[in-house]
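Recap slide: FtsQ-type POTRA domain-containing protein, sequence and predicted structure.
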Amino acid sequence: MIKTKRYIFLALLIFLTTFNPELPLLKLGFFIIKTVNVSGSKNTDLEKIKKQFNFLVNTSILSVDNKKMNEIISQNEWIHFVNINKKFPSTINVVIVEHEPFVFWKKGNNNLIITKEFTLIEKFSFNNFYNQTQAKGNFDIEDLKKLY
């Protein structure tokens, strides 16, 4: 009985220390991502983001590349963070939470958006923010933080 427990323990130890989610066994069709749903985008091009997340299709849901997803997120200055939900067996839902505009800032020839998190956004469509609070002048974000 003790020898059997040792063999089971050794087998589990070897399996758990050498387990790799990229094994072909896990790609039999049960864990392959077939759809990636992206939602929550107001100020970014939703179709462009969907195309960027398409690298996930036909990969294993157990081996999602977080580094690649973080690169996609950091490329877009509007994205504050992303919630990623795995819906087994074959769907990933990506919910985008964007920065909220706080002030439209005209500094010289530059038009910028200052968000509620005090980050600067340079690329935006002016038509979407014509009702936004406006500020003009040469001041720093730190000055604005003191007022807020």
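The chain has a mean pLDDT of 80.
The chain is about 30% helix and 25% strand.
(End of recap.)
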